[in-house]
Amino acid sequence: MSAKLLEGKRGIIFGALDENSIAWKVAQQANEHGAKFILTNAPVALRMGAINKLAEQTGSEVIPADATNMEDLENLFKQAEEKLGGKLDFVLHSIGMSINVRKGQHYTDLNYDWMAKGWDISAVSFHKVMQTAWKLDSMNEWGSIMALTYMAAQRTFPDYNDMADNKSYLESIARSFGYHWGVRNKVRVNTISQSPTATTAGSGVKGFDGFINYADKMSPLGNATADECAGYVISMFSDLTRKVTMQNLYHDGGFSNVGVSDAVMAQFMNNESE
Ligand code: NAI
């Protein structure tokens, strides 16, 4: 393998649910690159048990934490520093969930209790994670904090529902908190805006199969896979990207800058000649 980009670095990885999860791939690659880390997920997700396999593979420990619960987060960060033997160099927030999406509630008929819960889990939790690390002074200088997002924050994808609003909020938190982290600790904060990816969270979106194929046909380089996303996250945790902060970074094979592609146009041209 090439150079180990994360040798000597310590971190926390949120959101590895099963082997399709983007966070799962990040954990595998972080391990290959020499990092030591704690895996964490909501207690209810841990009951599935898959994460233990990943912990074994990567020689890491699992500490449960509901990312909306400040006590859980405080315990997580304190224990992580203790078990890993020092302050942290990276944190990955790979968390998302909308009850309205899950229950098929239309955007024009949202259940606001569900909306508030989904917003807390998918967006505010990023602030909670950072505020916890901030108050405990858990991050080393030149550390890197990342969250994952989707382009529905900028452009409308009707079936993405209230997750679009959650992602906008999440990206804004990255900029707002990124400022303070930069000034106080030289820590960078960014979001990666990833192609549609076949995971539990992704596949929950209505019409996902059509959606993922469309994105693939629109992207000059094709959709980015979960493994490729993990590679980008590793580069953002490495010392090669120290001055990148407060950015929303597209990792989508070019999708976000394409108006229309030949492959998509071809579908319409065919229809026209029928
Ligand atoms: P996933 O379903 O494998 O991961 C979502 C994770 O969020 C799960 O591990 C789940 O247990 C965790 N989670 C939910 N509630 C939680 C809570 N209260 N506390 C702590 N953890 C909680 O799916 P995926 O796709 O790997 O999602 C990771 C991130 O990537 C999410 O932010 C998602 O929105 C984002 N993303 C996904 C895309 C896709 O098409 N799959 C595209 C762009 C971004």
From TrEMBL:
- Highest taxon of the lineage: Bacteria
Oxidoreductase as UniProt keyword: yes
- A Pfam family for this UniProt protein? adh_short_C2
According to its UniProt record, which residues of this chain constitute the active site? 150 (proton acceptor), 160 (proton acceptor)
Could you tell me the Gene Ontology terms of the biological process aspect for this record?
fatty acid biosynthetic process
What positions does the entry give for NAD(+) binding?
Answer: 15, 21-22, 95, 167
Q: In which pathway does it act?
A: Lipid metabolism; fatty acid biosynthesis
Record-level Gene Ontology MF annotations: enoyl-[acyl-carrier-protein] reductase (NADH) activity
Its EC number is 1.3.1.9
Stored InterPro entries: Enoyl-ACP_Rdtase_NADH, NAD(P)-bd_dom_sf, SDR_fam
Catalytic reaction list: a 2,3-saturated acyl-[ACP] + NAD(+) = a (2E)-enoyl-[ACP] + NADH + H(+)
Q: Which UniProt keywords apply?
A: Fatty acid biosynthesis, Fatty acid metabolism, Lipid biosynthesis, Lipid metabolism, NAD, Oxidoreductase
The record's family statement is: Belongs to the short-chain dehydrogenases/reductases (SDR) family. FabI subfamily.
Q: Which PANTHER family match?
A: ENOYL-[ACYL-CARRIER-PROTEIN] REDUCTASE, ENOYL-[ACYL-CARRIER-PROTEIN] REDUCTASE [NADH], CHLOROPLASTIC
Q: What is this protein called?
A: Enoyl-[acyl-carrier-protein] reductase [NADH]
Organism (species): Owenweeksia hongkongensis (strain DSM 17368 / CIP 108786 / JCM 12287 / NRRL B-23963 / UST20020801)
